[in-house]
Amino acid sequence: MILWVNTIGTKFRTMTNTKQVGEKLKSIRELRNITVAELAERAGMTEEIITLIEEGRELPSLSPLVKIARTLGVRLGTFIDDAEILGPIISRKGELRKGISFSTGGKGYNPHLDFHPLAGDKSGRHMEPFIVEIEPSPAPKETFSSHEGEEFLYILSGEIEIQYGKEKHKLAEGDSIYFDSIVSHSVWCPGQIPAIILAMVYAPF
Q: Which segments of the chain have a pLDDT < 50?
């Protein structure tokens, strides 16, 4: 496990818990009596990717997970939750939960988006708030996300670039952007140090 401290003094724990996501995906799929082939077809993905995710060997990006969640009729956060709490959820400074790491590419890409959920146990929520650490990387040439819903990003530190459709935007500390997730988009950190953002994702199901 790697510990990293950013400029606003918050400690982040980088963790790729693909096994947790895979186990929950397989459990929900089997509970719904849906085969891998059926899920792949309905979600517009390949059987190979579904199998790799269930076996804990692949977690390519957030977008496929959103599509899988919608296909199975569950919230995106279902794959991350440990419990369900009816009352308010409080996240203290310096005590962020272990996160899920995603890559912005397909098979063979290294993960460089670390998501730390801020409301992972909140029952019946409609929004998914995260603190996201984005490691420096070159701009993607082909890989973009697209899924139903909306997203809000607020830059806490560092800089990011976002390709939204045919538009490209550069955002620095204090900037924010709100957009429709159905439009093809990709986010990366062009600088030399990681960027930290507050992300709010709404994915209807």
A: 1-16, 104-111
